[in-house]
TrEMBL record:
Protein name in UniProt: PQQ-dependent sugar dehydrogenase
InterPro entries: 6-blade_b-propeller_TolB-like (IPR011042), Glc/Sorbosone_DH (IPR012938), Quinoprot_gluc/sorb_DH_b-prop (IPR011041)
Keywords: Signal
All residue ranges annotated as the Glucose/Sorbosone dehydrogenase domain in the record: 92-381
Source organism: Streptomyces buecherae
The keyword Cytoplasm is assigned to this record: no
Biased composition, class Low complexity, residue ranges: 40-58
Signal peptide limits: 1-26
TM region positions: none
Amino acid sequence: MARAPHPFRQTRRRTLLALTATTALSAGLLTATTATGNAATTHRTAGTSHAATAGSGRLPSTADAGAVTLPGGHHGRSVPSAIRTVSEGWSIPWGLDWLPDGSALITERETFKLFRLTQAGKRVEIGTVPNVVTTNGEGGLLGLAVSPNWKRDHHIFLMHSAEGDNRIVRMTYDGTTLGEYTPLVTGIKKYNYHNGGRLRFGPDGYLYATTGDAFQAALAQDKTSLNGKILRMTAEGKPAPGNPYGSLVYSIGHRNPQGLTWDAQGRLWEAEFGNNAFDELNLIKPGKNYGWPTCEGQCSTPGMTNPERQWKTNEASPSGLTYADGAVYLAAQRGQRLWRVPITRTGTGTPEAYYTGDYGRLRTVEKVPGAKALWLTTTNADFGGGQPAGSDKVLRVDLR
Ligand SMILES: [Ca+2]
């Protein structure tokens, strides 16, 4: 798509928030104009680094004027207002999910360890996940999901690279000890790169997983392959009822997806790494084909579903994705920023970037349960960041 210099200079976001019904019309023009735009401006607010970038990869398919015109004033209005370090001394923290007491379980990709971290920042090492191997790239110990029934079953779910495959396994964690290891889905092809790896329980109670194409792009279009897909399964690793092909496969045509989240309407959003042109934010529907490798970003090939948003890879390269208070947040690695994308009734509003360059590469972002806040992890100790082991952090972002 064309990327001509943008004529609109975005002023402070509060100006946008104060738009009246009358000026909402011009806001619509704003977002329409950004369809051909690029970075508009960068500004800093007191206490918080806040780089606002308008017009990254706006796609002309949805009416995102709704981002500033929805009634009630409750939709998508909070923004990052403060950031602080919760915990230091991490090495590529990757999977993160919450226990009922508000503490988090966190995996480290290359140490294969599982930790528990309280909201107050107390870290306890729980143990090492067995059978994990590094891929000297993007594999290792990846996603983590806590059973929705954890108080009863003490189950946690992990996705990792093993000697011969990538796999999804179940373990027990009773609050103290890591126990029984049960493979649920094996035989997902692995490679140094493109291993996907996010795990998430959906509002329907089923477990979703993202798998990469393992550097074999054609697998993404092969409905019988587990690679380059979003998978949906029962807690036993069986195809969830209603899956489009009667298998684990939920959607196809993905390259290296690592972000999954559901919005307030229960819609599934996904973030994935593009190759060298465009990263994507997709609205996922069962049985749809998201294009890779025929398309990277938006295209007009029949049968392919276009992304809702796309970014140049140096602006994003998104891993984690989470929904909070009317927006999705993408943790960008190469882009070294946190993207906030308003979610509207019909699509997305204009993305804004926060903390650009301030914390290096970002990996995982998760909404803190019961709080208007996010936890955000860095991934500077990976091969892309080149920082020593122990140099990563867990950060807390307050929304206001
Ligand atoms: Ca795509």
